[in-house]
Each structure stands twice: as C-alpha cells, then as structure tokens.
Design goal:
The chain is an alpha/beta fold. It is about 35% helix and about 20% strand. It contains 17 helices and 20 strands. Strands 18-19-17-16-10-11-15-20 form an eight-stranded mixed β-sheet. The model is unreliable at about 470-505 (pLDDT under 50).
Length: about 500
C-alpha cells in the first residue's frame, strides 16, 4: 500500500538519541519514514539494529530502486546519496572529495518534487546548514516542516538555519513531533494556515482562559499553544481563529476543553528505563545513606500529571527500605496545575497497558489487580501527597532531597525557564538531586550544579546560600484537604503555606 505521507528526518551523526526519542512515540499510522543521517563514508552504522529497539515499524537500510511502503523506516546507507522518484528510492555513490556532502538537501529537494503536499521534512540537531535549502523545496511544494528547538541542544546550527528561513511550521522536541504530524495529517493545512491575525486572536484566547480560570498561559511558548488551539479549532470545524474565539466566548464548555488540551502531558511508568535504573542504583542509596537518624526523605515531582512517574519513584524507594531503613518516613510531594489529572493520580488506578512498562515482579509486589485494571498498593500510595500547584505562580517546596521536573519547561519561554530553574534550585537541599527531561538544559543554574549523569539530565545541588524572592508568587487555592495520621507519607512543613492536598477517597 502506498503511504499517504512520507516523512524525511535529517540528522547529524550524533542524532541517534533524538531519533530514538522520536520513534519511541511514533504510531503505526499509514506513513513512511526516511532517515537521512550524516555519516562518514567509512562508518559502519548499527542504526538498523539500534532503532528496531525503539520502533514498532519495519526498519531497513534503503536499497537502490526499492519502492517505499507504509509503516516502514528506511535508513540512508553510510556511503551514498539518496533521492526519491515515483515513490522509489535511488542511491548514488559519494565522491571522494572533502567538500561537505549535503545529503539532507539532496533528499529533501527530491522529496518535495516527488511528493508535494504529502512531504514532511524534519530537521534535528547538527552543525552547518544542511537541510535549509531542502525545506524551501518542501514548503514550495505545499509540504510541512518541523525543526527541533535549537535552545535545548549543543548542536543547534542545523535547526537554527532552518528556522531562520521563516518556513518552519513547528519547533518541537523530538518526542513531541509525532503528535504534531498526526494532527497535520488529520487536519491538513487548516492547522498551519498562516494568518496575520493569529497572534492577536491567540492573545485574546489566552486572556479569556485567564478570566475564566486560575490558569495563565501567557508565558508558555506560543508555537505550542497555537498548535493546540488550532487543533481544537479544527475539531470544531473552524479554520480562522477569530471565529473560534467568538465560539469560545459563547461556549464555556469549549473553554474548559481547550484548557485541557493545553495541559495534555506524556507520561508513563519508569519512562526512560535506564534513567530510573541509574536513580535506583546510584541516587536513592546515596540519599538514604546520608539521612540523619529520624530524618524524613522528601521528594518533589513537579508536573506529575496522572502520577505514573511519582509512583515509579515510590516503588524504587520501597524496594530499598529494608533492615534499619524500614521505618524511614517518606514524603513525595506530587504537584500539577491540572486538577483532573491529580484526581486520576490520587486514585492510583491504571489500565492493563502499564504491563508494557512495569515488570511482572513489580506488578505482583506493588499493585492490586482489579478487573482489567491495576491499583497501586496502600504501602506505595501513602508515600505520596498530591497537591495542585502552579510552577509559574506558586512558591517552591523546600528542603527536598530530590526534585523531578521533566518535559515541562520545554513548553515555556526562556525567561520563564530561568525563573523556574532558580525556584527548583532553591527547593533543593545541599547535595539534593535534580532530575530533568532529556531535552531540558539547566544553563541558568548550571554553575550551581554537579553533573551526575549527562545523558539522563541528573544533577546534584552545590549551592549553599539560596536567595529568591517570593513577592511574585501567589498561594494555590485549597482543594479537598484531608490529613491522615502521621505515618510514612504524612504532611510536612516544607511549603511556605499549606498546599492543597488531595487524598484518595476510601
């Protein structure tokens, strides 16, 4: 079957981690993927073998003359140029010159000419400007272009040059690109139609949400907010944001639906398993070893969404509370701006889909089977305190041994990121650990941190003197506050004022 869209990914030689992140979130959806990666002509790539671990799709190295099929990934051979004509891939040898081989431009140019509106080009990190000429061809043919954010990579030249053309439709981290592609295929040009009034109408929509809820998205990246707004608008058959704004003003339930769209998060148990393995072996034992007699272990998961990550951490801790540590008091503060997600998290009930991320041994030890669902056991649940908290407005939780804030800051402007990084640093104890998402870079506070694991963005606080002003913050509104007896997971005085704590209904 012929693919309805062909997605070409241009990447540098060091882009394997980004490519893996992209394919970790790619569905079987009737399209084809072609990876054009910079590789020296004498480099024997293991990409096919490595990528198969991250993709549900068929992964092969491209052969000369092969017809492009649905739900397959084709990798450029290391010593070839490649083009597409009439839906077939054709290879030619690279010459022996030392001049740059612009393999991405070569393929993108052919993709635009061959596929037109069915062409989607992606630029990942890398040095130089390969791909910039090619995206012009794709856009001229009516296709769509995505670039990764140059702000969160050490090799931002390729995406920066692409973005400078003004032709890039979305600037996203690799793991969020599949979602944007799915939206584009579903809604087509309506999603990326360029309107001179978009900025004005989006500002009015954000103001409307602020008036009708405690949420303020004005300091979030406008590209992300605009994309999700246009997705909701298209869902309601509106092409122009001005018309959608009028609809929002007269339809309160749609304002709620749009707000939920902004709050959508991607999470799972033990997401990035190697990172959690490292935390289990190299971080938690160190924290437990350094606890003074009677001292509580305190963690904060900021942006906990539906709770999978916070319960993952609780499980890692529980597995190490043996012998003299079995009576250690654990308090994991799990916060989010989304009250609906918090209610879901507080119940601790998950579908059978978690079996792909949680081992049978852990399911048996830490969960109760209820029909087709799994509920976290009380021994895990009582470690966690859920609270509604807005990182933008509310003060930080303090004196934490460990803070996790993953894949949340990438939605925010650099100025807001700096403010929140400073807050997170303030919230850590000396020698406390900070755990970030794979695409986040704590440059505003890096001088105060020791890099513990560069790949998985785990840092240790070196700062002893902490100064931050709270005059710009407001306190969260109280929700259903219930205080159980003091035990593993009870309340604590680590917050400037009492947080809104959500306990599960028994």
């Amino acid at each position: 079957m012929e693919p309805h869209h062909i997605i070409a990914i241009g990447a540098s030689a060091g882009g394997m981690e980004e490519i893996n992140s992209f394919f970790d979130h790619t569905p079987l959806d009737g399209v084809s993927y072609i990876i054009i990666q910079h590789l020296s002509s004498d480099f024997k790539s293991r990409m096919v073998e490595l990528l198969r671990r991250h993709s549900k799709l068929v992964v092969t190295e491209a052969e000369d003359g092969v017809k492009v099929k649905c739900n397959q990934v084709y990798l450029i051979p290391n010593n070839k140029f490649m083009v597409i004509r009439d839906g077939h891939l054709y290879l030619t040898d690279k010459d022996k010159s030392q001049a740059p081989h612009l393999t991405i431009n070569t393929f993108f140019n052919s993709l635009g000419a061959d596929c037109g509106k069915r062409a989607i080009g992606i630029i990942l990190s890398g040095l130089g400007s390969d791909g910039t000429e090619g995206i012009r061809t794709i856009k001229k043919a009516g296709g769509m272009v995505i670039a990764r954010s140059p702000e969160t990579t050490d090799f931002g030249s390729m995406p920066s040059n692409a973005i400078a053309t003004g032709l890039v439709d979305f600037i996203l981290e690799p793991e969020f690109m599949p979602n944007a592609i799915e939206d584009y295929i579903r809604y087509g040009g309506d999603l990326i139609a360029d309107s001179k009034d978009d900025e004005k109408n989006l500002g009015a929509i954000i103001s409307l949400i602020k008036e009708r809820s405690p949420l303020d998205f004005s300091d979030y990246k406008q590209t992300t907010i605009l994309r999700r707004t246009k997705r909701r608008a298209a869902h309601n058959n509106f092409v122009m944001l001005g018309n959608y704004l009028d609809f929002l003003k007269s339809t309160p339930e749609e304002v709620d639906a749009l707000t939920k769209e902004f709050l959508i998060s991607v999470t799972s148990f033990f997401r990035d398993k190697e990172a959690f393995d490292f935390i289990q072996k190299k971080v938690i034992p160190v924290i437990l070893e350094k606890l003074r007699p009677g001292e509580e272990l305190k963690m904060w998961v900021a942006g906990c969404a539906t709770g999978e990550e916070v319960y993952s951490l609780a499980i890692l801790i529980d597995e190490q509370l043996k012998a003299n540590l079995k009576d250690t008091v654990i308090k994991i503060f799990a916060t989010d701006i989304d009250s609906a997600a918090l209610m879901h998290a507080g119940k601790g009930i998950y579908s059978k889909g978690i079996t792909k991320d949680v081992s049978p041994e852990r399911l048996e030890r830490h969960f109760l089977k209820e029909g087709d669902n799994y509920r976290v056991k009380p021994s895990i649940r009582k470690m966690v305190i859920f609270a509604q908290h807005d990182l933008v407005k509310n003060p930080p939780y303090c004196n934490m041994h460990f803070i996790s804030c993953r894949n949340l800051l990438i939605y925010m402007t650099p100025i807001l990121q700096k403010k929140i990084f400073t807050m997170l640093l303030f919230g850590l104890k000396m020698d406390g650990y900070l755990f970030l998402g794979s695409s986040e870079n704590p440059m505003p506070i890096i001088k105060n941190l020791e890099v513990v694991n560069k790949k998985w963005k785990i840092y240790k606080n070196l700062e002893t003197k902490r100064v931050v002003g709270f005059d710009a913050f407001s306190l969260p509104e109280l929700l259903d506050v219930k205080r159980p007896p003091a035990s593993r997971g009870g309340g604590g005085g680590i917050y400037p004022k009492i947080p809104a704590i959500i306990w599960p209904k028994r």
